[in-house]
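Sequence, please.
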């Protein structure tokens, strides 16, 4: 076998590749360092990743055989791409050409580290690179192979990003159980044929759209806490192949990392470990710029007296750890080899405690000198905010935390990889929320940012932020004293987090919960969810990077409970479009509805189990997105949804089953609109403990009504609409409010410019600003106070919740979030008095 060819690309070629990467979108990913140059067979060296270890790593030859749906076109070649998720899937692949066995079968043998888990996918090389994809043109992130010794992998490619996929498909379906006690295991990454899905609380998974043939099935614990399971699976057209696998829990051992770093490094700069497990910063998601690791989720090392960096971690035995040391993330400011290549280390966690001693050769790549960014921020920058810098070499990548110098000064020295481009953009933001909490000079995701050009000598760039987007000094407004009637036991004074999510939020959730507690709240409502990836066939499951994982949500519940907050879990799905448009684009025939109710049942039971395990006090199901699935359901255009006539019985059965999994309070989120009122509420609501009434209704025809008029109208609606509804149910009703900080919010309809009304979530970050809507922070505060006044006089109201809270940082924007706005001051005054904490 010939060795892999190492090629140094010119800046112009790299720039061309970067443009192609941007144009390709998610369905086609390009290497920034190799393609379009030829790829070669694998090297004979046993170390595919990182420098050779002082102790030889045992390897085994593995043969990969792949079957295509149709022959390659003239001029095309097939390659297998070994991926590096720590640096970024498209940023550091190693491609190996494959040899034709016949017109549609190709093979290659690779020496791979024994007990390693290899991430790979197939690519076509021709006039441009094409990446394999799956049913519905969903891109394949990667396939997995667990190397237990010499072996053979048989794969089938479903299709390519530039041509049709396989017509015939089957399903792989089953459960994963703990081998020791038989308990189902959630949050395990299951993959076959390049398709990926996470198991739910029942350990259940379903992989739809596999082409007929033999597939390599792998179950992988993203935190390494279970041993990897692997077996071949034969899939037939239109058939379900069942699998039940038992995974062995992995014990923990102590691993101490000791690393020497270059002597010219900035004193006090935090050294992190970026790695392939969740606890090492990997999100298992496609984030900005092709990056999967986030600095804020990585462990930080400690400087020892001898100048080396030290970190001890408890890691699972047998876990395949790919890692590197970094002053940023897996791509920016990470260690490099002397040859300028990305460094990526590997070891298999042994059965006993171990000390690993490494040395960082260099943080730099190429001859360009480091660039020091020194920044002065406004004095009114919120205390506790962390300032980030974000780079744009080929599109915005994930932001990196800067280093605090005190007195509103921050710095960051960028070492590499400066060999990638001659010029690139950059900008600053707060708490990692670039595109939302930006410097006023570079707002929004479409901003090109400031520009810098590399140089052979080091540079010192000094910048100042003159102001932050959506942050203004609103001053403090005196709150008029009034008699506030303490409510009875069980009253909810709560804050609901907005349902969008990003893995970077985890660092700021504790601070957000402290802010909720400081308002005097006694409830925090968390909104994790799953994503509808496809509507036909129906694909509904947690999607890393977009949905909070099981472990993330369990941790959030624990953090809230530590602050003596009651916790309600309110699962909300995510769509690639508005929920109304999604429903209209679904088949909604008998078979589809059967699948939909089955998926919703799995969704509800998953979060019932999560709420029970996490110790939450309440579970909230339902929501306004469910209107088409309710009895006599309608679409957003007013047409009937075709929901089955027994929808009520199906939903009631789901509620009954949920109760067998969760013994806390069970609420149903039901939307209240003046049109139709509450008269058509389904009877199964009586089976819940209460109704979480989603309230965004019109309180005035005027864009700037008086507070007195708002309170009067709110009182009228409560008396004439909500009170009879509450009496008929005999259940507690919690008012859950969502009013944007926008002029005209009291009308209940902010124009979408097409004759309709904007959904209140449209104005929530990270969505782009809607310029036709005007900011009005006081309008939101007045609405909240008016409704609080109405609630104050009606003891039968069971609670008051503010929806849409944005956890990562203060934003005085147009959204419904009260974080840092005058409406928060209103809650701070009212909540403790309503709960009787303050007289």
């Amino acid at each position: 076998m010939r060795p892999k060819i190492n090629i140094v690309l010119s800046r112009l070629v790299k720039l061309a590749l970067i443009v192609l990467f941007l144009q390709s979108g998610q369905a086609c990913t390009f290497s920034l360092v190799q393609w379009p140059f030829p790829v070669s067979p694998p090297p004979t060296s046993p170390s595919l990743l990182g420098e050779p270890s002082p102790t030889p790593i045992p390897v085994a030859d593995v043969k990969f055989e792949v079957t295509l749906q149709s022959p390659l076109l003239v001029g095309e070649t097939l390659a297998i791409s070994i991926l590096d998720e720590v640096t970024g899937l498209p940023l550091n692949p190693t491609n190996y050409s494959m040899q034709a066995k016949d017109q549609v079968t190709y093979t290659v043998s690779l020496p791979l580290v024994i007990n390693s888990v290899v991430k790979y996918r197939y690519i076509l090389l021709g006039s441009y690179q094409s990446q394999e994809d799956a049913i519905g043109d969903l891109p394949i992130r990667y396939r997995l192979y667990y190397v237990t010794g010499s072996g053979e992998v048989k794969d089938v490619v479903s299709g390519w990003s530039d041509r049709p996929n396989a017509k015939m498909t089957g399903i792989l379906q089953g459960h994963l159980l703990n081998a020791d006690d038989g308990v189902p295991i959630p949050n395990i990454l299951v993959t076959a044929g390049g398709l990926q899905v996470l198991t739910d609380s029942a350990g259940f998974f379903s992989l739809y759209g596999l082409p007929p043939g033999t597939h390599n099935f792998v179950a992988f614990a993203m935190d390494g806490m279970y041993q990897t399971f692997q077996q071949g699976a034969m899939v037939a057209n239109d058939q379900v192949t069942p699998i039940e696998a038992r995974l062995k829990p992995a014990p923990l051992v102590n691993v101490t990392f000791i690393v020497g770093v270059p002597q010219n490094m900035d004193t006090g700069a935090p050294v992190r470990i970026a790695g392939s497990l969740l606890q090492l910063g990997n999100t298992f998601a496609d984030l900005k710029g092709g990056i999967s690791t986030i600095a804020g989720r990585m462990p930080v090392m400690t400087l020892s007296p001898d100048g080396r960096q030290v970190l001890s971690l408890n890691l699972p035995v047998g876990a395949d750890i790919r890692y590197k040391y970094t002053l940023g993330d897996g791509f920016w400011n990470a260690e490099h080899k002397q040859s300028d290549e990305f460094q990526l280390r590997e070891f298999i966690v042994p059965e006993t405690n171990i000390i690993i001693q490494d040395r960082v050769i260099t943080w730099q790549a190429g001859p360009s000198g480091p660039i020091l960014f020194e920044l002065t921020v406004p004095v009114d920058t919120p205390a506790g905010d962390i300032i980030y810098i974000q780079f744009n070499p080929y599109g915005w990548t994930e932001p990196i935390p800067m280093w605090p110098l005190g007195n509103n000064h921050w710095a960051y020295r960028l070492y590499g990889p400066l060999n990638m481009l001659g010029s690139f953009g950059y900008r600053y933001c707060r708490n990692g929320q670039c595109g939302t909490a930006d410097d006023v000079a570079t707002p929004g995701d479409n901003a090109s940012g400031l520009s810098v050009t590399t140089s052979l000598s080091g540079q010192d760039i000094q910048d100042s932020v003159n102001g932050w987007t959506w942050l203004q000094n609103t001053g403090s407004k005196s709150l008029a004293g009034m008699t506030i009637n303490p409510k009875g036991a069980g009253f909810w004074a709560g804050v609901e987090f907005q349902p969008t999510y990003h893995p970077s939020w985890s660092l700021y959730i504790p601070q957000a919960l402290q802010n909720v507690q400081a308002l005097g709240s006694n409830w925090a409502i968390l909104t994790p969810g799953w994503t509808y990836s496809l509507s036909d066939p129906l694909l509904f499951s947690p999607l890393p990077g977009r949905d909070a994982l099981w472990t993330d949500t369990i941790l959030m519940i624990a953090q809230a409970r530590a602050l003596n907050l009651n916790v309600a879990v309110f699962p909300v799905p995510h769509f690639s479009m508005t929920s109304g448009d999604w429903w209209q684009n679904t088949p909604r025939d008998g078979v589809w509805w059967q699948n939909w109710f089955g998926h919703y049942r799995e969704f509800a039971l998953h979060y019932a189990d999560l709420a029970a395990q996490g110790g939450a006090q309440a579970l909230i199901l339902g929501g306004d997105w469910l209107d088409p699935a309710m009895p006599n359901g309608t679409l957003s255009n007013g047409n009937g949804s075709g929901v089955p006539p027994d929808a009520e019985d199906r939903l009631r059965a789901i509620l009954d089953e949920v109760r067998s999994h969760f013994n806390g309070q069970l609420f149903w989120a039901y939307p209240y609109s003046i049109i139709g009122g509450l008269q058509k509420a389904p009877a199964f609501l009586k089976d819940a403990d209460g109704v979480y009434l989603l309230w965004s209704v019109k309180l005035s025809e005027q864009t700037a009504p008086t507070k007195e008029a708002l309170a009067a109208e709110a009182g009228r609606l409560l008396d004439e609409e909500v009170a009879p509804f509450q009496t008929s149910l005999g259940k507690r009703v919690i008012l859950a409010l969502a009013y944007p900080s926008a002029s005209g919010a009291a009308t209940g309809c902010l124009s979408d410019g097409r004759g309709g009304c904007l959904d209140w979530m449209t104005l929530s970050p990270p969505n782009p600003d809607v310029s036709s809507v005007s900011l009005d922070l006081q309008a939101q505060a007045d609405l909240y106070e008016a409704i609080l006044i109405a609630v104050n006089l009606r003891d039968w109201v069971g609670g008051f919740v503010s929806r849409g809270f944005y956890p990562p940082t203060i934003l005085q924007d147009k959204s419904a979030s009260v974080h840092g706005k005058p409406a928060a001051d209103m809650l701070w005054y009212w909540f403790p008095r309503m709960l009787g904490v303050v007289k």
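The two ends are 82 Å apart (CA to CA).
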